[in-house]
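Box 3.1. Reading complex inputs
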Amino acid sequence: MSASQQEIGSTELAHDVASGMFDKILAMSMSESGEVPAWLVATQQVATAGSDVHKQILEFKEALIKYGKTHGDLEDMADIASFGINDFLSAHELPMLDAMMELRESNGSEAAIAEVKRQATAFQQFISTDPLIRWLDSPPTEIGNSTTIVTTLGGALSALIGAL
Amino acid sequence: MSLEGFKAFFNKRSNNVKLFGERSAKVHSALIDLELQLQAWLSEAEKTKTKSTHDLRAQLFEPEVAELTRQSQHLKAFGKRKPGDAWVKQAALLKSIEKLSSRIEAERSIPYTESVNGFACTILDYSLVPQLSNATWVNTDACQITVTALVPKEFAEDTEAGSGGVMLYALTQSAAADAVAPYRERAAKMVSDLSKKIEATFTGRTASTMVTTEERNALVEDMNTLNRKLHAMAEEAADVALSTISAHVNELKNKQPEARKNWIFRFVKKLILGIASLGVNIARLVVSSGADVFAYVGGVKAIIAISSEVYDAFKSAQLVHTQLKKNINELAAQLVPLQGDLKSQTKAGAKEIGAKLLGGLGLTPGFISLFLTTCGGTADNLALFRSKLCAINVKCSKMLTKVYKALDGVAAVKNDPQSNHEALATIPLLERLIDKLLKSIVALQATVSGFTLEAIEADVVLKNYCDAYGSIIPASKEQENFGIGDVMSIFSLATGIDKCFGNPCTDAVVDVVKSAAEEVKQAVAA
């Protein structure tokens, strides 16, 4: 079991774990001196995109509750925000982040690059086909908020796959 | 996109997540109940027995409880990631908890003292056991009873048949021989004293001289007194031996943590406890009812014969885990190159893919042979292990026949108008004890019979797998080109283990077959 899998076993929310890992990857990338390898830059972009997307999801949940309050539909919208939009990314995101950490720790070993590529491809594929993400990126206009998961995170992943 | 569509989509998802949470809570609560049940049972046992016996019993379920707890903790995290699969896991976990729960209940019904004392008695060095050959009398070498030759056979049958001596002898031959040595010395002296007394009584008399009734009664009384003393000493020594054996088991556990997890290790442990229970039931029957019934059921000889089979199996089963794990890793490696082949196959070739996949998974005669070999440490040991289990099964059947004969005998006494009051008074106790013995034998037989399933049963198991997971395995025996007979063997082995314990072995096999079926389905769909 990897470090992140152990962490997720605790009460901590998956997206918090993911955010923490994004931050860590960013910090590691930024602290590099001299010429930054391409794989490190690419992972850094994914990390930024990941953090942005998580912020968007939180904002979307807030917008849902706000909509519920103003339209007499609070119970359903709160339920959706609490239970319906949880951890849908982590099944792909955490293994990919694990692989990215491993890549950093191995200082760009071939095996680690291949693994990141594999995980990122699976993640990218998931993002581009998952119906839940489609709903979040193109929600009913009444809600007044939307995410850009496919373009932001999916795009960064595509760039990462291309760079590796 | 419409708000209705949005709500319908997300309401369904949030309801599912909530439902998952509720079921998770159910799993946790069932687990807590299970632990409470186990604790209650153990503290019940602790009231009457020493710490060492308590530990022994605790060990029986400790690995399962730990595994269930681990699974339950993992489930929460897993559920967040893959709710669909987690539901299946939840259901399986609940099922495992229920299964373990009923096993604990069943175990609870075995009298505590009997299992524990019997356990001590059956950890023997069986290489010496054949010396204990006479079912009627305690062996002359063991406790230096030299009276057998001097006492007419009919007198011997009136005594309590030396069950205390038998028990003590068993302990002196156990892994705890050193701890029991002082008891043995005391017993040897007591036996020797009686022997000298008997010798003195009969010395100088010719063979044709009749033994008087008074002499006979005095002799029987002496023998019974001695036996009672030996029996009491044996009970005491059993506790001493048990502590030593418990320490021995713990040492083994520490040295071989892998072995402890091993299903064969636990299976054999279960067998030993089963045999122990059988042995003690026989001894009690003898003590309470005299030698007639003892002779009927084959007495110590039968127990020793069965136990020695298990002991050999036990010895051979200690080597298994690492090798088996290695094989599984190798199988995983074999699977990788197979993916490409799978994708190039057509639906019409599904059976061929199935056969090939089974080959890739290693479910070939070669693998089966390797698997079974590693189960037993070496090929010879494995053959021994399985043949021993078969032998136990056969011996159990023979004992059952004898027990039924004994029951007939009891019924005859019961229905005989000539039976005196004394004989009739013993019948209820006798019936109760025989019934317990019967249950012990049946339980033991059930434990081993899983390993000797008839082909027809294996066939049914196989068919069920085919029905459930797609026809990747031809149900017909005609298609033996990839070792269908051997596949059946592995299923029968796994099912047998499952029958005994609900063990992970079956799960492992199911997983292999299930994933194989899944691969085939995907390939066909592609």
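In summary: The CA atoms of residues 476 and 484 of chain B lie 9 Å apart.
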